[in-house]
Write a structure and sequence with these properties.
Order of helices and strands: HHHEEHHHHHHEE
Distance between the termini: 45 Å
Number of domains: 2
Strand content: 5-15%
Shape: globular
Number of helices: 9
Amino acid sequence: MDARLSPTELARERAVCADYLAGRSLDELARRHNVGRTKAREILIRRGAWRFQVGSRVEYPTNPPAYLAEAVIARALGLWHRVNVTPERARSLQAAKDHHYLLRFFASELFQFWCDLADLDSDAVIERNDIPLGPRMETREQRRALENSPQRVYHGISEGSR
């Protein structure tokens, strides 16, 4: 199934499945990934992510750990893009904290674990999303806020100031 798809189409299908498993509706998937509602549903069915009723039970993906990992990565990348793309958020102190914690997550072994579980190349994910993992300068206010900040939890991803 995956051999006939280009890397771009494969990445789109995985992103559609991960967003669906993260709780997005078909309409949101169609808008977000620039595919029609029917095409989004076909992708979900083909990838085994479509949840449908069979009698009184619900069927789920054939490989739940991989789809869970893709959902975690999609959520972290969604937060990353929201923090870095929205102009008014980029200037706020909370955005600096979120930026810091997300950078720590993307540089951690936990991110590597989720990528391995989802069968993704972590370096390619970081490169594709322009995540700078090198040293960066912070203003004095940002450093002070990060030092005094409480622990934050991003949907099961716990990162605190240590």
